[in-house]
Description:
Layout: E1 11-14, H1 30-43, E2 47-51, H2 57-69, E3 74-80, H3 83-93, E4 99-106, H4 109-114, H5 120-137, E5 140-146, H6 153-165, E6 170-175, H7 182-195, E7 203-208, H8 215-224, E8 229-232, H9 246-255, H10 257-260, H11 271-282, H12 303-311, H13 340-349, H14 356-372, H15 378-390, E9 399-406, E10 415-421, E11 427-433, H16 437-449, E12 454-462, E13 471-480, E14 498-507, H17 510-531
Parallel strand pairs: 1-2, 1-8, 2-3, 3-4, 4-5, 5-6, 6-7, 7-8
Antiparallel strand pairs: 9-10, 10-11, 12-13, 13-14
Residues 19, 104, 144, 146, 172, 174, 176, 207, 209 line the site of 3-methyl-2-oxobutanoic acid (KIV).
Pathway: Amino-acid biosynthesis; L-leucine biosynthesis; L-leucine from 3-methyl-2-oxobutanoate: step 1/4
Keywords: Acyltransferase, Amino-acid biosynthesis, Branched-chain amino acid biosynthesis, Cytoplasm, Leucine biosynthesis, Manganese, Metal-binding, Transferase
Binding site for Mn(2+): 19, 207, 209, 243
Amino acid sequence: MTTPSDPNRVIIFDTTLRDGEQSPGISLNKGEKLEIAHQLARLGVDVIEAGFPIASPGDFEAVQAIAREVDGPVIAGLARAQAGDITRAGEAVRDAAKPRIHTFISTSDIHIEHQMRNTRADVLEGAKAAVAHAKSLVDDVEFSPMDATRADPEFTAQVLQIAIDEGATTINVPDTVGYATPDEYAEFLSKLYEYTPALRDVVLSVHCHDDLGLAVPNSLAGLSVGARQVECAVNGIGERAGNTSLEEIIMLLETRRDRLGYTTGAVTTEIARTSRLVSRLTGYAVQPNKAIVGRNAFSHESGIHQDGVLKNRQTFEIMDPASIGIDDAEQLVLGKHSGRAALKDALSKLGYELDGQALRQAFDKFKEVADRKKQVTAMDLEALVTDELRGDDAVGAFRLVSYAVEATSDARPPHAVVVVGTPDRGEVSGSFTGDGPVDAVFRAIDAAVGVDARLREYRVDAVTGGQDALAQASVVVELGTAGAAVRWDLPGVVAGDRVTGAGQAVDTDTIRASAIAYLRAVNVAARKLAAGHRADGALEPTP
Length: 543
Ligand SMILES: CC(=O)SCCNC(=O)CCNC(=O)[C@H](O)C(C)(C)COP(=O)(O)OP(=O)(O)OC[C@H]1O[C@@H](n2cnc3c(N)ncnc32)[C@H](O)[C@@H]1OP(=O)(O)O
Ligand SMILES: CC(C)C(=O)C(=O)O
């Protein structure tokens, strides 16, 4: 490839389809590799390392298909310093508009002695032959001294000199086992420049692994001493702990261009889509707190942060989610650390404009739920607010004060004791032994209040999924004066009237939600009775 004229332009070399695919459990077929390669081209990467053609017929075909079909980036195939590998890689990338062969051989003594079981002289010879062979097939040849950061820099420099002499146009210095620290890596590269001045005539590349979590900092350190190509993989996948994460390095360079001065050709708005595609096709989920593409990367949960973001996003955000292609980031996540500002904002998005006492009430309820529930979703919030807005637990109605239920798996039937606040008689209590815990609570309520309500419908739904989901209880009761022991005076109640009342309530505790819903249903029915409604809904003229 032609070297960019801007000296600070960083070449993005994507190895998702080669080193990324080396992650345990990942195996991409030709169609999947093509789909990812097309997306990488849309993302504007400069080089796609499409695979290791000697590895399998399938990988060869995938590299060949990418070379033939994907326009824009350089298409590279990896090859050991072996004639067969290089020939195969050459065949695979031949039809690309911009083909590259990337060949490598180790320069560390540990690899020379224990893996390749040969000598430094063999490595010098192997590198020379490999680069010469690759150069006979394509113009664009990249050479890597594998395990360089654990190798003798002088010997590595000697190998690099040979590779450059044979026509390598990019020299990539891998931290193969993710061992170097940023200072060491920068120093190592500086030494290579010192020992091999010809390195200034080619592109120096960095390829870092994340074994100690230093892949991105090491890549940045490499750039600081002159490297201008970064090898990286989407979502940071790759051998063992993975490679430099593509989205992190690109957004680091783009976001901190003010300080660092580097540019890339990346279309950053394609980052989120690329991450999702790679995650879906590889089966590798992205951790929620992953920088840039994690679900939480643009979310704020705590009240102080949310308040700041609502006032001005820059208070707690260094990047705009839209810049990586996220237009609908759920920025404010409601949980136990959230404050009124975020709650008010979330409610307003749901169409509820709450202030003053109503907001305070909703906030208290929200905190109560958030203490028991990891995250309060929009659906939870809506259920809570409508619950709160029903407001019929207030003055003039029955309201649940407390309940206790005893339910066991032995023969004893469940027993409930309930205390209810009444409009005119203070707190009254009742108890009942029922068929089930909910039945016991409902009948204990009847006993406390002094009604003979008939349960017509009862349903419990989970508002959202998960173990800590809010329960929404829906109850319909029928209440009548005929034969019922109604022991309170309601103005206008006519003997023989029967009416229905419906109530709903939301709580993390199913029994509590059920009890409140039941009392609300009783309140509604009692109000209807007082107003002279019949069970069929028609108005009964009161005498
Ligand atoms: C750091 C990296 O990520 S390097 C890339 C790693 N990626 C892969 O290995 C994925 C694809 N690999 C494969 O499919 C297989 O390993 C193949 C097809 C390449 C080779 O398979 P095999 O011939 O069965 O060899 P095997 O994998 O058992 O061993 C690797 C051989 O390559 C040799 N080798 C390793 N690196 C190099 C190199 N850069 N140049 C030359 N030879 C090398 C080893 O010394 C060993 O040779 P030996 O069998 O004579 O001891
Ligand atoms: C082949 C080389 C570049 C490699 O993947 C490594 O050393 O990690």
